[in-house]
Design a protein that fits this description.
The protein contains 14 helices and no strands. It is mostly helical. InterPro entries: MetI-like, MetI-like_sf.
Length: 293
């Protein structure tokens, strides 16, 4: 028994040490980006590797927030994350609630069609042709309309609506409420955990819009934050990044590594701040699912 106890302690200590090393390895890049963003450009150029700056400064953040290119890109991404998320939730919730009602004619056919969109990817060319025919090239709506909803999210939210007792809907009809009134006054208030979860998914997707912006957007003033960030981070010798680097350097100064790190922090912080406020809704959604089941 004593030998086993000692071996168990050694094993637990070894596992703990390995997990600690892995955690530090994963945490170090975030720490390094954060520290360098607050480091004076002069100190960073002098030392090269800064683990703890002797002088904390907001110089890089002031440069970015005073730059028209970066501020405009942040405004575009904010618009996408707010307006796009709101519209996506409306379309997804309305579609999921409609499909959750068994009295809907052609319900199975619609579900099969929606399911097919999750199984087969059309690629790049068909969506581009659709966006072009709709006249949305170089329009901010080209980053919202093609991805306004997701078939997988509709199916998942449909399951959530089906878990709500039908007696509540019948009680609303007895009180004289219409289908829209029942949806707005009864179903949606009970669906806050689901809406919060999918809202976060949509917000992260819109905030990280990148590839579709490269396909559909050619105007510099409509580029979202992730595109500008990519142009700022990659080698300035290339044509695309050279354009943004020269445009920024003409207004403030030549981008340095501290400036790049500050841009990464600014593009990451908003999502990190939103998640804690929605975490309680996730927990509530788990409780509702366990009770309904």
């Amino acid at each position: 028994m004593v030998d086993r106890s000692i071996s168990d302690k050694l094993f637990s200590s070894a596992v703990l040490l390995i997990l600690l090393v892995i955690a530090l390895t994963m945490f170090f890049p975030f720490y390094y980006v954060f520290v360098v963003s607050f480091t004076s450009p002069v100190e960073y150029l002098r030392k090269g590797l800064v683990l703890f700056p002797t002088e904390w400064t907001l110089t890089s953040y002031k440069y970015l927030l005073a730059n028209n290119v970066f501020v405009n890109a942040t405004a575009v991404s904010t618009f996408l994350a707010t307006v796009g998320t709101a519209l996506s939730l409306v379309v997804t919730a309305a579609g999921a609630y409609t499909l959750s009602r068994k009295r809907l004619q052609g319900r199975r056919v619609l579900l099969i069609l929606i399911l097919m969109t999750t199984l087969f990817n059309p690629g790049i060319i068909p969506p581009y042709l659709v966006v072009r025919e709709l006249g949305l090239i170089n329009s901010i709506w080209s980053l919202i309309v093609p991805v306004l909803t997701s078939g997988w999210y509709v199916i998942l939210m449909k399951g959530f609506f089906e878990s709500i007792p039908e007696e509540l809907e019948e009680a609303g009809k007895i009180d004289g409420a219409s289908d829209i009134g029942i949806f707005l006054r009864i179903i949606l208030p009970l669906s806050l955990p689901s809406l919060a979860a999918f809202g976060l998914f949509y917000a992260v997707a819109y905030w990280n819009t990148f590839f579709s912006a490269i396909l559909y957007i050619n105007k510099a003033d409509l580029r979202p934050l992730q595109v500008v960030l990519q142009m700022l981070l990659i080698d300035s010798s290339s044509s695309s990044s050279g354009e943004i680097a020269n445009q920024m350097s003409s207004e403030i100064s030549i981008p340095t590594d501290t400036l790049k790190m500050a841009a990464v922090v600014i593009s990451t912080v908003p999502i990190l701040l939103v998640y804690p406020f929605l975490q309680k809704h996730f927990a509530k959604g788990v409780m509702v699912g366990s009770i309904k089941g």
